[in-house]
Design goal:
Elements: H1 14-23, H2 28-54, H3 58-75, H4 78-93, H5 104-112, H6 114-121
Helix pairs in contact: 2-3, 2-5, 2-6, 3-4, 4-5
Length: about 130
């Protein structure tokens, strides 16, 4: 399996949401609300990454990527989680904030999967 296989098939692992629903005693409404919030905030989270890069703000970039990675993991957005984890590593490896612009292609790749991730999360839960 290559590092981008998670982004070529399904962008979302429905088993994660099924597990979350089970942990919540089968309550679909809570899981549905959680997914709706993720979907609503996903474009904002990516915009926040762009903003941090434009402002050369390494602390905000790290905070934004960790938020994206964690929330993506919780809803089973496997591609977003994978790309956010890779961006996190890249940020950590930068010598200083003035190099943040070099990470723009990674943020653009993340952005390319926003629409597909949202589409896969919007169908009703099983």
């Amino acid at each position: 399996m290559s590092e981008y296989d998670e982004c070529t098939d399904s962008l979302v692992d429905p088993a994660v949401l099924i597990q979350l629903q089970a942990e919540l005693g089968g309550d679909r409404t809570v899981v549905g609300a959680f997914v709706r919030t993720y979907v609503e905030l996903l474009p904002w989270r990516v915009a926040r990454l762009h903003h941090a890069l434009n402002n050369l703000d390494i602390e905000d970039a790290m905070d934004a990527v960790l938020s994206l990675k964690t929330s993506s993991e919780m809803v089973g957005a496997i591609c977003m989680r994978r790309l956010a984890a890779e961006l996190e590593i890249s940020i950590r490896l930068l010598p200083n904030a003035s190099h943040l612009q070099e990470l723009r292609p990674q943020v653009e790749l993340i952005e390319a999967f926003v629409f597909g991730t949202i589409c896969e999360l919007q169908p009703p839960l099983p």
